[in-house]
């Protein structure tokens, strides 16, 4: 492929983040100048906004991106606040040293609670976060060493050299320096290899796992990161107020933090700041304005606030940040460089040898035997068709081969190695890559990013490197590989379009490009021609023949018999979970048992 075929434009790797790149400068200037131009009361409010934004940012990553709804982040704020309060007042430890102690304890709690909680799903997970949030609140209020419900006061201020940060204007810059650093780190993370995997977690976990993403580990990591952000907020909170009590860390605080993320834009980094600002400022304004407006005292601001939030969420269901994004300039796009160093490729086995072996593989779902003692093999460098009527068990067979399902009995071997006990990631590492019967793309991500997920195992950089912007060279290579595969399948003009905006047939081709980005030895295609027009099917058949010439083997499930018969080297026919026939296409076409099962006996 030549560089001339690559479009000269800049890529939106994460459109929501890219749109907010230039406002970072304006926002930072406002934060830097605010204490010089706004009253002291608003400086204090800005401190509260910065502290809340840290917690809400963790929830953006945890809830909005990864889909893990937590009502218990206030517990981590409280753990850090009480840790530093006890150590500084009872033991005289420096606040800077207690920062490390606070984060260590928060991290330990985060790992334990995450390991337990993340085994749950749906509303059970959310209820669990409420449960441990309530439990930790009562621990704070009932232990004598924590001051019980009276709390702990007279905390020493944080000091920078000999300058104590003992007033709101003095600690202001520390709070916002930490908050802005966390925002930039989050944007860097989401615009990376690890970030693409994270964004696939919420709705496409099985797909991500099939390309080598350790989804369980990634969930624990994002849970831990959200807890640590809350811990930093708690440490700053304690030394800003110089007082801690359980009342600041009750369940209502947890709901507030989640509310900030939602109204700001739960899937947008800057939604954390916007949501924290709206919630904090609006409450204060209502407290001041309502008693004057209605000439009565009482908690009327809660009612008005609730109504305003309902209207706001009705008008901007995805939050304020995406609504504002529509008014910002279009994001600049950086094309992956065609001069990026190609990724190393695995050595393909010599044609003709046995590549995949299935020996009496069986699986049941309750009383239904979905696959019953299936045995066949696939040779290196061939295209093998797996056909049969609807419900014959073909997709289940794919799930068994790729580790989505473990077989009840029998064995599956790849290049002589047994793989049925390895799981999806272990199998993906060996070069078995699949597409799905139903399109399995992250619709809000660009086509380029979706394909880059396929190359996940071909990169090594982790989350810390991504946050520090230290993995850019490797990421450029991954994106360049994704672009090459998209040009290879004829979608080079759609790199930066949202995957969900493509036609169904094009989305299936994107899935093939994603699988090719993984550098497969064996490509498993589940109905790749479904939804394609005649010309597109011919182009797909030609692509698969080229792959065969490059010694990439293909296992193909397809219902279009004209497409299959003119392409495959051999066929395996399934019916009711069992192998009905196996052989060359010409032999299968004249097999009476196949005609009876597949065509009802009609010639």
What would you say this structure looks like, in words?
The chain is of the alpha/beta class and 603 residues long. It is built from 24 helices and 14 strands. The strands form 4 sheets. A 6-stranded mixed beta sheet has the order 10-11-12-7-13-14, sandwiched between helices. A 4-stranded antiparallel beta sheet has the order 6-5-8-9, covered by helices on one side. It has a two-stranded antiparallel ribbon with strand order 1-4. The longest helix has 27 residues. It is elongated and about 90 Å long. The protein starts with 14 loop residues before the first helix and ends with a helix.
Overall residue-averaged pLDDT value: 89
The portion of residues forming beta strands comes to 5-15%
Q: What's the N-to-C terminus distance? A: 47 Å
Q: How many strands appear in the DSSP assignment? A: 14
The helix content, as a percent range, equals 40-55%
- Which stretches of 5+ consecutive residues score pLDDT under 50? 1-5, 7-20
Q: Radius of gyration, Cα only, in angstroms?
A: 28 Å
Structural class: alpha/beta
Supply the number of helical segments: 24
Largest sheet: 6 strands, mixed
Spatial order of strands in the largest sheet: 10-11-12-7-13-14
Bulk shape: elongated
